[in-house]
Amino acid sequence: MKYKISVVIPNFNGLDLLAKNLVSVVTNTLSYDPDAEVIVVDDASKDDSVKYLKENFPKVIVLKHLRNRGFSATVNSGIKIARGDLIVLLNNDVLPINNYLHSVVDHFNDGEVFAVSFHEKGYGWAKGYFKDGFVQHSGGVESTTSHRTFWVNGGSGIFRASMLKKIRYFDEELFSPFYWEDIDLSYRGAKRGWKLIWEPKSCVIHEHESTIKKINQGKKDLIVQRNQLLFIWKNITSRTMIVRHLKGLMLRLSRHPGYIRIIFAALLKLEICLRKREIEIKESKICDEILLSEY
Asked: Where would a tag sit more exposed on the chain, N or C end, judged by fewer CB atoms within 10 A?
């Protein structure tokens, strides 16, 4: 089956990365689908990213935010105007290798497939597990065959547009400005019975955290740990696992009293989190214990 492809690239002060990677994105995407659209969503950059795009890539669709809104909101803006059946999400620091789409698209002939991760050189599929009361993840080994994965990378993956819409896109309200949003999206899809796959033959090179590394490390660490808590409070609907989480939370706090800052930061979004948790309880079809034991 032939699918219409849309590529969505978020950008914030990434002129150098666009100049480095966008030619390859456009060339390799059009080699698969000559009618594909490439959309760059600029998140209120202060550099000349938008000017560069308009002067050098007139066929690329450029959408500009008037204020900085973070990763999830930026990607969502692109997804919502995209016309493709399949949405390729690429960070501006991702360089696709020749024919990067040819091996992933056929997976979508299975109507239960939600998303497929590209193979970032040096990384395999993703494991997810529940340890010491917390949902955690790590990398599986690289291999030559496709593999089920815990989550699909929001900066180097391809998603079924109809399912993105059904699941209400990335949760920009809860996880902005960054981190855990793609794990949240993937987990919500998996709990609805949809499949997540890692495809080793579809290769990209990802210069990780080219934008985020410019942010203060302490602030970044706080956001990462806060969003981990929000992910658990929103998505883990098993009563047994929530009890284990609360015990693990108290143990972590007793060992690291400074962790109270993380808890307070998460509590500021508790009302939003609990509202979204009700949706997960209502719409989920697969229990947490099964999902977190499959990998």
From this structure: N
Q: How far apart are CA 138 and CA 215, in angstroms?
A: 23
* In contact, 40 and 18? CB cutoff 8 Å: yes
Task: Determine phi and psi for 26, rounding to 5 degrees.
Answer: -65, -50
d(CA 229, CA 238): 15
Q: Examine the pLDDT at 77 and tell me if it is beyond 90.
A: yes
Cα dihedral: 172, 177, 179, 182 (round 10): 30
Distance, first Cα to last Cα, the chain: 30
275-285 pLDDT, tens per residue? 999 999 999 99
Residue 99 Rama label (left phi>0; alpha psi -120 to 50; beta): left
Please report how the helices 217-235 and 181-191 are oriented relative to each other, as an axis angle in degrees rounded to 10: 10
* Best CA proximity match to 25, nearest among 61, 55, 1, 50: 61
All domains in the chain, ordered by first residue: 5-213 (3.90.550.10)
Closest CA to 11 of 61, 59, 50: 50
CA-CA distance, 86 to 105, in Å (whole number)?
8
pLDDT tens digit string along 206-248? 987 655 566 778 899 999 999 999 999 999 999 999 999 999 9
Confirm if 114 and 44 have CB atoms less than 8 A apart: no
pLDDT, one tens digit per residue, over 102-140 is: 999 999 999 999 999 999 988 999 999 999 999 999 999
Q: Does pLDDT of 295 surpass 80? A: no
DSSP β-bridge partners for residue 128: 137
